[in-house]
Amino acid sequence: MIKSPAVRVVKDRTIRIKVIDDCGLACTFCHNEGTPVTADNRGRTLLPFLSGPGGTGRVSIYSETNGVDFLAARMAPDMSFRRAVRTVATAFEADEVHLTGGEPTLHTGVPSLVSALTGMGLSVGMTSNGERGRQVMPECSAAGLNRVNVSVFGTTARELRAVQSERFRSAGLAEAKIRAAEQTIRAAVSNGVKVSVNIVVPGPAHVDRVVNLVESYGQFADVRMLTSIQDGPESIAAISEVLARVGAEPVLRTFTAGTSDERTLYRALGSRAVYVKRLLPVRLPVTCAGCRFNNDTDCQEGYYGIRLYLTEQGEYMVGVCIQRMDLCVRVDELLQSGIVEEVRAFKEAEVRRLTGQYGVAA
């Protein structure tokens, strides 16, 4: 009989910051933080933007339907960046930021971004596919990077090619990308940066690939399996099969109150840490109430948290949903928008609900 895991409730205190749109991979399930692929849509005058694949081979799966009306630009660690981050972090009581993209390690100034953020007293994490992690990890570590979540899509060229667009199905290119991810993980570990290996699990056809990844990377890093928001039940079933294959036993279930994020820690293959991240049907009480996606099938991410963007016109924007980018507001209009009060009250209500439901302290 499998023992029920312990339960922990933590209040969301994180902001995701899209620091760059460029990426050297072309994953078929990429949501690109809700924004179009900038390189494929620059100069386009008619909306909606293309979801892809365009010339880069990349996709942004929601950008033709989510109402987005801007292209994401590369952020710089200047005064406007600091001002925008400080405004948003203060408004939402955040003490942690998470750098996303695109691919953050392609940003030549990413150590300076980390330094600017840690200098503001913020804990900094990053999601990366590891393209230039080996090169930038020493400087990022010195700047105070706390954690990197490395997205790994295969241990062999064949496995990686299975989740890439046609343009990226060269065996040589796939092997180079796999080596880069491995080097990033090793560079992070050797420089004292905590590492998690992120694996998106689209469906049953990927079970063998994911088992290989757990066996390969679980020796020196935490492994996190993520449900594919496009594939829903198939993704969940595939994750269950992987857990059975590696003999995983649940240890700790963590709810991030005020977001759809729930993750369970398992011990597998002896003592290896394997996490499963699931998205719960969490909705903002006002913003989501009348949304056309607010049902059991169309809302794929739920309310996941606050995201910060920079447009090509130089405006910082705050987003609450990658499927409803039309809800984004300018940072200089944030405090008048009503979003801050709604999100803060919602987080407090979720802490009370979850701690009461599971009988635990936050």
Characteristic key phrases:
362 residues; alpha/beta; globular
Brief rundown of the structure:
The chain is built from 9 helices and 13 strands. The chain is an alpha/beta fold. The chain has a 13-stranded mixed sheet with strand order 1-8-9-10-7-6-5-4-3-2-11-12-13.
Provide structural commentary.
- With 362 residues, this protein is of the alpha/beta class.
- It is 30% helix and 21% strand.
- It contains 9 helices and 13 strands.
- The chain has helices at residues 38-41, 79-91, 110-118, 133-143, 157-161, 171-190, 207-217, 232-245, 339-358, and strands at residues 6-11, 14-18, 96-100, 123-128, 147-151, 194-201, 222-227, 249-257, 261-268, 272-279, 306-310, 316-319, 329-330.
- The chain has a 13-stranded mixed sheet with strand order 1-8-9-10-7-6-5-4-3-2-11-12-13.
- Strand 8 (249-257) and strand 9 form a beta hairpin.
- It is globular, with a radius of gyration of 20 Å.
- The mean pLDDT is 91.
